[in-house]
Design a protein that fits this description.
The structure is a homodimer of 161-residue chains. Chain A is α+β, with helices and mostly antiparallel strands and 161 residues long. Chain A is 37% helix and 19% strand. The first copy, chain A, contains five helices and six strands. Chain A has a three-stranded antiparallel β-sheet with strand order 1-3-2. A three-stranded mixed β-sheet of chain A has the order 5-4-6. In chain A, helix 2 crosses helix 4 and helix 3 packs across helix 4. Chain A binds a DNA duplex (25 and 25 nucleotides) through helix 4.
DNA sequence: GTCGGTGCAAATGCTTTGCATTGAT
DNA sequence: ATCAATGCAAAGCATTTGCACCGAC
């Protein structure tokens, strides 16, 4: 996980701190650095993921690329998802389900989510307070923090799940 | 703002706030309330879990009860684990693995963990700071927090995972 | 006798892998 | 020619389920 930049922690107001470098370029760089190739199939999987712009499951991608101009097999989708994780482009989100769900990671953004138990909606947040608390906890124990993940489960007042 | 509690482990009775009511009683009550029975197999699974007193996987339990006086089948272990979750006695912990891991829940204790990436060790922590941050985040959005889960991934300084 | 409980084995469902084929340099 | 990528089908694996038998009330 590259943390060496810390650049746009800026007041970028949009829900997603928008992209400095196209993700496909990031992906291409990662692949090249390992002697792998940026194939049409891999590009198409990434493109499909970016278009979704939300949490997704492997299966969703598999379905989408099944009925499209560039057909990609299930196996390749899974293999590509793994590569994208390694590249830090997507990351796995852990809710309660067994099926893996992923989201775009946009570089080094940690996982801070609110899971609405009433609406099943997932809200990504970004709180310096949480980051600081986690960093603290590690520091107190002489550990180096490599990342963290916070899931907050919440409901609207008065809703009875 | 320093919480009066801080990161103490000392003043509290023990790493786990100890049990007011035996867990088996809690379990029995839950079962009875649904017209189910507190069988020797179910008791033995719960007992095995309590003895572990740490994170565990279904498989660990299956192995333990396989070579014991009261043999319990794999199916029953899984079925019992589900019941124990419903009873709020154990809860699932989400790390990166696909295999489910559980821990004793002791009522409402939230999940705060440090996952050591170098040693694969899991350290449970308790930080008022985190709880406060999470509560804040919900309050800011007019939501009611039902719980939260924090996983911090960390390594010893200098270790290269 | 009626229900639920258990064990076993078979079934699931997501994900991974082996292998032959194909494509790029 | 080499080396990796793809698709397909088969394999894995944790977990669930169908079913026949058993035991408590």
């Amino acid at each position: 996980m590259p943390q060496t930049q810390g650049n746009q922690k800026a007041a970028a107001p949009s829900p997603h701190p928008r992209i400095v470098e196209p993700l496909c370029a990031v992906f291409r760089r990662k692949l090249k650095s390992e002697g792998l190739k940026y194939t049409p199939e891999r590009a198409h999987v990434l493109d499909t993921i970016v278009r979704l712009d939300e949490l997704f499951e492997a299966d969703t991608i598999i379905e989408r690329v099944k009925n499209s101009d560039i057909r990609v097999s299930k196996a390749t989708v899974y293999r590509t998802i793994k590569l994208l994780q390694e590249a830090g482009i997507i990351q796995r989100v852990l809710c309660d389900e067994d099926q893996a769900r992923y989201q775009l990671a946009y570089g080094a953004s940690p996982q801070e989510l609110i899971v609405r138990l009433d609406t099943r909606e997932i809200i990504t947040i970004s709180s310096g307070e949480l980051a600081a608390a986690c960093a603290n906890i590690c520091a107190e124990r002489g550990l180096v923090m490599d990342g963290y993940r916070v899931h907050i489960f919440a409901t609207a007042p008065g809703s009875n799940v």
